[in-house]
């Protein structure tokens, strides 16, 4: 990808500008986290979906919304450090 | 339903029957004109409503004259945006006297809307981002500067834009290009415009920044190493609690007006659980700053605020760091101390200069008043906060306080309420907590090295809060009383259509609504509700009824009726209307030995003119009764008068054979003069001279219905008396009655509408040119009932309407641009006319058989959808209270005796995160708030009926309640109960449920027959009626239950299928319970004389055994969880929680279930409805409706007739046939229930759907190619031309998740009516039709449905 002038845009620059931009080296954790954040943001934006969840959980819409926003901070738990295998398994189970 | 699916290309039209009724966001302000407070509401489904608060005078009330007058909300304006509305801001741009609305939606635009004069107009709609409810597209939050200089729009993450608002030299609002205030990786929880006088505008944002991935990984690595060193596992702190590694901040973003630049100016750490903000008045009005509401505490923060000095036990002064004030919120009794109570929204009301208070509502519905104490020396220094309990209301989505001491709370679920304050200075007596108490409790808690850390720890422990805050027990309303409620069906969980009441003409709509203790079963009937005011017996069956107006003007300048004249076959009965209705004899002057054909009071009355007396037309002549003297005109010869019509100055009679004679009243002489005669050449069946328009002396036209199937319009203008102006032919049917009505236009010019009631039971409506008298060429015709239609004029809500009587009474009225017509929910009437007196302003007097009835249309509470006022269909609802959130219902046919059967309705109700009825009672909780009388109540009934009574009383006894509410302070023993039940105590641990199975009798107003409470955390989630062939085909109720389920993560104890028998059609008898163990049971269906059960990701077929169900066969491996199940023939249709539909077949020869086909699109199914054996309509969690069909021949290979199984299964991914998607449509709200039904007896079927936010709609199949072409092209034009208040493309909205396919947006087509005339004309031309024809077509489509 390049600027109109022809200068290439650095990957990090692109990532900073457009949140959720992926690349070939993206870890599964990063991808899933992004996905979840997008999902929660979409749920929070649709009032009807919020009330659907609120009815299901028998909480108030206000609390459901706050909980969803909180979950956006770390939707898939802490990142996994250590062996790659271990992390993959943990993700699948989360 | 063959018509839906058989057409080669299936096309559906989405028609809205009822707007979605839940309110996303609301605000109060002066929008249409200065000094009139109005409420603007964003409704889910994309409408912006403007409601005016109407306080009527004491005299205007109908029932109680001594009441203080009625307060109501009246819809002024409605804007359809066709977008997802998310946030709302109100801004008074400097230099203006009115507020304008700023709306954030999913369109990537900020729209600035002005409601000048009650008409919504989009001032600006600048585009800033991509379309959709995205994480980084602003629209989720809007804040406005209290001084009206700027507005900030923010996304959930990162992006914030500030728009500077101003006015140009002409006074128009201008908007500058946006300024960015982005902050990466920052999740915003709330946004508010801080009031700091006329300094630079500041916006307060409640936000959390998360770490970048690399940092997070690094942090995690460090933690891991530390843990290794310490050699122990660290306990994980739940997200959102103190210590989870994030800090929540209140940040001030300052807009520097000079530099035109936004910067993050200041930030302070707040309570970790904080959730909402409210700005405190600043500048000259107060100390400025922000209130932050969180779990258990309300904080006050402001940049540079002084630390409050606090005296601790040792007597030393301490300064609390960081600089903030914190105050605990009073807690509910019985609330578990391990759980916090979250304040979900707050609002601030500025009273007079320098005075203000805030209201905060908790997630349980308790409303608190928050006041700040300022230091005596310096009014800008806040020294303390007091939080005291105001009242307990239904949980709302906002709090709107009006200057009229009214509080509007749009409820999350259940009816919205408008409350009047009875008291507001409640600090002395109320349950309260102060910041001083809170802070000293913190200081007492012990010394600590790190103050900030200690504080955070302290305030994040609900146990600590419970030790500080006083507790209260929610009771009846003390400081507020309800004055008005706005209907809200949300959430509707299920729907059923059928004529179950047993004695009504058209089917009813049964909807399961509401949540928790406010749940109701609502029975919706199409039509207007009618209040019966009086019924009296008559000596015979009358042939006509008339009203005669009083010639004396009442105090308020209106005429009331003096007589009701009832005509019989050979007599006339005159009833005088006064305090009571009395029969008059000869003294009235009427000829009582003959029937009456027409009668009216003459003269305009008032203005000092002499009363003109009364004219009575009887078959033998015309009788003019004037102050005791009577003059008569006899018909010459042996002819008889066949029919007649009279108004205040004109009388037209028709003799047998078709001779018309016209009389006119001369106000000067006070006499009647014969003015003209004419022979129309055909027998006349009906006549109408119309109404005298206001300020005129005569009506200019008369309508004459002739037996030769024509209706003619004659001129009554002096120059051209009885000249025929136009006529219309009716084809094969004859006119039965005619009426001319003047629809008063806004400019006073008025339009004339001709309504003809026909012999074949339909009614015809046509416009009449007010000058030439030409009848429009495209009259609209509608079938009303099985009897000839009698038409008469009535007044409804001050506007002229028509009463049409056939086998059902109907009312027609010109609404906003569209003629609305609705049946009255009442018994058939024979004759009727309008009626008005002091007690009944706008009534109807009518006869039915040999009774005379006085009726008024609309509920007495005024909470009714008035015909034509909102563009909804008129539905009236009756409601029955339920105990928990209803989940599903099913119909059962119960055997009473050998020969008779009865239809009963079974409803399963369950609430998660709740405890059972018995447990609540044991804790001493009463949801009615009626504590003292609780013991008395228990005696009455123990089966939950007490709630039903309360909700029934809700509307009818509102006035009574009001008085009771007033008395409560004086007399605690008073028998006041709550109108709306309170949510009961919340269990401390997850996985607690309250649930019951209820049996309801639809033939008896849905009274509860039996209610079986499930105990031990068992939740009934689904039900089905099943007839086991092995057991003689008796209809049994199967209920699927699960015990101790938690949803996230999904865990449960065990699940059961419980079987009940209905004994005598009134009682549930438990037959047996069968334990199933593969997952929760979410769906059940009767399947070929057995029971098919969806258990987790397994479907299993059961037959009935003596002690439990017997497993016959099963199919494992459904993708996630079976959510919905339906069956037809040997097929079953399975809706999966995530992976859309699976079709399966039962192979009887080898006794196995075989997967036939599946859908290739993953849809989280919420509901499904079978259209035919190959086709199913499904609704998903994202608000889409799709219709899926099994491709022809796809299931042939699934079952091998030879009985030899293929080695490989057809469930293999690539081998399974895939379903075709026939239609896709984005409704915009989660569709929770669908049913295939017709709303009129014998009408065509359509697909009725309901949504979680209370919308009721219908997908109507097209019946002809012409209609499809018409609607497609109309929709196409409207997509281009319709106004877009939020800048959202209608087509893109309907294609939110998948491109819209084969469904036409009826809402969009209806928007045609609201377009300006020249645009209508333009579109009509392109459609090769006239405007009238297009409108008629739209009406006809609706009429065919209802």
TrEMBL record, chain A:
Pfam families: SF3b10 (PF07189). PANTHER family: SPLICING FACTOR 3B SUBUNIT 5. This is Splicing factor subunit.
From TrEMBL, chain B:
Residues 930-986 are annotated as: Disordered. Residues 995-1313 form the RSE1/DDB1/CPSF1 C-terminal domain. Residues 531-856 form the RSE1/DDB1/CPSF1 second beta-propeller domain. One of its GO terms (cellular component) is spliceosomal complex. This is DNA damage-binding protein 1. It comes from Cyclotella cryptica. Residues 23-425 form the RSE1/DDB1/CPSF1 first beta-propeller domain. GO terms for biological process: mRNA processing; RNA splicing. It is found in: Nucleus. Gene3D superfamilies: YVTN repeat-like/Quinoprotein amine dehydrogenase. Residues 203-234 form a coiled coil.
């Amino acid at each position: 990808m390049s600027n109109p002038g022809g200068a290439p845009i650095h990957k990090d620059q692109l990532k900073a500008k457009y949140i959720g931009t992926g690349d070939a080296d993206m870890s599964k954790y990063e991808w899933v986290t992004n996905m979840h954040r997008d999902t929660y943001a979409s749920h929070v934006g649709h009032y009807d979906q919020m009330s659907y969840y609120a009815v299901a959980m028998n909480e108030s819409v206000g609390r459901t919304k706050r909980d969803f926003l909180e979950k956006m901070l770390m939707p898939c738990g802490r990142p996994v450090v250590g062996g790659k295998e271990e992390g993959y398994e943990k993700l699948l189970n989360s | 339903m063959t018509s839906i699916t058989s057409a080669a290309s299936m096309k559906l039209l989405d028609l809205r029957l009822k707007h979605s009724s839940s309110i996303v966001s609301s605000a109060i302000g002066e929008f249409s004109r200065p000094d009139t407070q109005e409420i603007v509401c964003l409704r889910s489904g994309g409408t912006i409503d403007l409601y005016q608060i109407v306080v009527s005078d004491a005299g205007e009330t109908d029932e109680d004259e001594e009441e203080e007058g009625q307060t109501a909300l009246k819809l002024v304006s409605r804007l359809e945006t066709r977008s997802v509305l998310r946030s709302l801001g109100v801004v008074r741009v400097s230099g203006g006297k009115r507020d304008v609305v700023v709306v954030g939606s999913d369109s990537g635009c900020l729209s600035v809307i002005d409601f000048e004069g009650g008409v919504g107009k989009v001032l600006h709609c600048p585009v800033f981002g991509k379309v959709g409810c995205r994480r980084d597209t602003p629209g989720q939050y809007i804040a406005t500067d209290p001084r009206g200089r700027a507005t900030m729009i923010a996304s959930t993450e990162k992006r914030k834009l500030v728009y500077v608002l101003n006015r140009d030299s002409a006074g128009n609002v201008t908007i500058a290009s946006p300024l960015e205030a982005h902050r990466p990786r920052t999740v915003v929880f709330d946004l508010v415009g801080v009031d700091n006088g006329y300094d630079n505008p500041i916006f307060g944002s409640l936000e959390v920044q998360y770490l970048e991935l690399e940092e997070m990984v690094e942090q995690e690595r460090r933690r891991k190493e530390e843990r290794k060193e310490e050699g122990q596992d660290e306990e994980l702190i739940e997200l959102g609690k103190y210590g989870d590694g994030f800090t929540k901040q209140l940040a001030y973003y300052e807009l520097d007006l000079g530099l035109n630049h936004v910067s993050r100016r200041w930030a302070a750490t707040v309570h970790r659980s904080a959730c909402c903000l409210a700005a405190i008045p600043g500048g000259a009005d107060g100390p400025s700053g922000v209130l932050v509401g969180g779990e258990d505490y309300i904080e006050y923060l402001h940049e540079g605020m002084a630390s409050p000095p606090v005296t601790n036990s040792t007597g030393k002064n301490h300064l609390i760091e960081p600089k903030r004030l914190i105050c605990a919120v009073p807690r509910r009794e019985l609330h578990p101390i391990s759980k916090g109570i979250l304040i979900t929204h707050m609002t601030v009301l500025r009273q007079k200069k320098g005075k203000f208070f805030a209201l905060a509502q908790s997630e349980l519905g308790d409303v608190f008043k928050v006041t700040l104490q300022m230091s005596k020396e310096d009014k800008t220094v806040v020294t303390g906060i007091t939080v005291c309990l105001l009242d307990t209301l239904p949980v709302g989505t906002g709090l709107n306080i009006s200057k009229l001491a009214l509080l509007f709370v749009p409820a999350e679920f259940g009816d919205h309420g408008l409350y009047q304050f009875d008291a507001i200075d409640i600090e002395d007596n109320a349950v309260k907590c102060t910041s001083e108490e809170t802070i000293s409790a913190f200081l007492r808690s012990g010394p600590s090295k790190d103050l900030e850390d200690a504080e955070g720890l302290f305030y994040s422990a609900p146990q600590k809060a419970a030790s500080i805050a006083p507790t209260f027990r929610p009771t009846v309303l003390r400081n507020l009383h309800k004055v008005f409620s706005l209907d809200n069906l949300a959430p509707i969980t299920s729907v059923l259509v059928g004529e179950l009441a047993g004695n009504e003409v058209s089917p009813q709509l049964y909807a399961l609504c509401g949540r928790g203790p406010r749940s109701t079963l609502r029975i919706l009937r199409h039509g207007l509700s009618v209040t019966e005011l009086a019924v009296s017996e008559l000596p015979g069956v009358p042939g006509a009824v008339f009203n005669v107006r009083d010639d004396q003007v009442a105090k308020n300048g209106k005429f009331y009726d003096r007589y009701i004249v009832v005509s019989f076959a050979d007599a006339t009965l005159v009833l005088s209307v006064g305090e009571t209705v009395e029969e008059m004899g000869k003294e009235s002057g009427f000829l009582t030995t003959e029937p009456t054909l027409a009668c009216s009071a003459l003269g305009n009355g008032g203005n000092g003119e002499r009363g003109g007396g009364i004219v009575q037309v009887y078959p033998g002549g015309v009788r003019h009764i004037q102050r005791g003297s009577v003059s008569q005109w006899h018909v010459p010869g042996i002819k008889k008068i066949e029919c007649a019509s009279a108004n205040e100055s004109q009388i037209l009679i028709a003799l047998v054979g078709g001779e018309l004679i016209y009389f006119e009243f001369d106000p000067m002489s006070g006499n009647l003069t014969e003015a003209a005669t004419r022979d129309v050449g055909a027998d006349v069946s009906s006549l109408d001279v119309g109404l005298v328009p206001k300020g005129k002396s005569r009506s200019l036209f008369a309508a004459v219905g002739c037996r030769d199937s024509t209706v003619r319009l004659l001129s009554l203008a002096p120059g051209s008396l009885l000249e025929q102006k136009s006529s219309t032919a009716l084809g094969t049917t004859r006119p039965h009655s005619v009426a001319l009505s003047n629809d008063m236009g806004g400019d006073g010019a008025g339009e004339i509408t001709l309504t003809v009631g026909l012999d074949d039971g339909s009614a015809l409506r046509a416009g009449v040119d007010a000058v030439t008298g030409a009848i429009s060429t495209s009259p609209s015709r509608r079938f009303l009932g099985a009897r000839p239609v009698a038409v008469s004029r009535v007044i409804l809500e001050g506007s002229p309407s028509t009463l049409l009587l056939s086998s059902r009474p109907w009312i027609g009225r010109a609404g906003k641009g569209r003629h609305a017509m609705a049946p009255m929910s009442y018994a058939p009437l024979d004759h009727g006319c309008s009626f008005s007196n002091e007690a009944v302003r706008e009534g109807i007097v009518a006869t039915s058989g040999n009774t005379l009835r006085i009726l008024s249309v609309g509920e007495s509470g005024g909470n009714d959808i008035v015909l034509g006022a909102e563009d909804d269909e008129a539905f009236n609802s009756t409601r029955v209270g339920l105990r928990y959130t209803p989940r599903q219902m099913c119909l059962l046919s119960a055997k009473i005796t050998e020969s008779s059967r009865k239809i009963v309705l079974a409803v399963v109700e369950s609430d998660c995160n709740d405890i059972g009825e018995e447990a609540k009672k044991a804790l001493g909780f009463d949801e009615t708030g009626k504590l003292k009388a609780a013991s008395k109540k228990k005696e009455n009934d123990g089966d939950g009926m007490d709630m039903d009574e309360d909700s029934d009383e809700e509307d009818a006894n509102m006035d009574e309640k009001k008085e009771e509410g007033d008395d409560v302070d004086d007399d605690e023993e008073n028998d006041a109960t709550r109108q709306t039940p309170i949510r009961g105590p919340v269990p401390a641990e997850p996985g607690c449920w309250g649930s019951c199975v209820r049996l309801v009798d639809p033939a008896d107003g849905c009274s509860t027959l039996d209610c079986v409470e499930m105990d031990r955390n068992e939740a009934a989630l689904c039900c089905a009626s099943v007839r086991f062939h092995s057991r003689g085909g008796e209809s049994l109720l199967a209920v699927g239950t699960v015990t101790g389920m938690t949803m996230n993560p999904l865990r449960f104890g065990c699940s059961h299928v419980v079987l009940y028998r209905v004994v005598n059609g009134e009682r549930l008898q438990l037959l047996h319970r069968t334990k199933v163990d593969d997952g929760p049971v979410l769906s059940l269906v009767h399947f070929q004389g057995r029971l098919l059960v969806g258990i987790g990701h397994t479907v299993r077929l059961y037959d009935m055994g003596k002690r439990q169900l017997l497993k016959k066969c099963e199919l494992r491996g459904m993708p996630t969880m079976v959510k919905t199940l339906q069956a037809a023939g040997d097929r079953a249709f399975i809706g999966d929680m995530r992976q859309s539909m699976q079709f399966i077949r039962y192979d009887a020869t080898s006794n196995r279930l075989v997967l036939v086909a599946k859908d290739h699109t993953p849809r989280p199914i919420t509901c499904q409805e079978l259209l035919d054996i190959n086709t199913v309509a499904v609704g998903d969690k994202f608000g889409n409706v799709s219709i899926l069909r099994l491709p022809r021949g796809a299931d042939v290979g699934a079952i091998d007739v030879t009985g030899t199984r293929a080695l490989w299964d057809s469930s293999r991914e690539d081998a399974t046939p895939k379903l075709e998607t026939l239609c896709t449509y984005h409704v915009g709200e989660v569709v929770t229930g669908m049913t295939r039904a017709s709303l009129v007896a014998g009408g065509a079927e359509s697909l009725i759907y309901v949504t979680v936010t209370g919308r009721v709609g219908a997908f109507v199949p097209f019946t002809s190619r012409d209609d499809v072409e018409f609607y497609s092209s109309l929709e196409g034009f409207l997509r281009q031309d319709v106004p877009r208040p939020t800048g959202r493309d209608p087509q893109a909205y309907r294609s939110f998740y998948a491109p819209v396919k084969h469904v036409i947006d009826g809402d969009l087509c209806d928007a045609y009516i609201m377009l300006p005339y020249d645009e209508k004309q333009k579109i009509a031309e392109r459609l090769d039709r006239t405007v009238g024809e297009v409108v008629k077509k739209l009406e006809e489509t609706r009429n065919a449905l209802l």
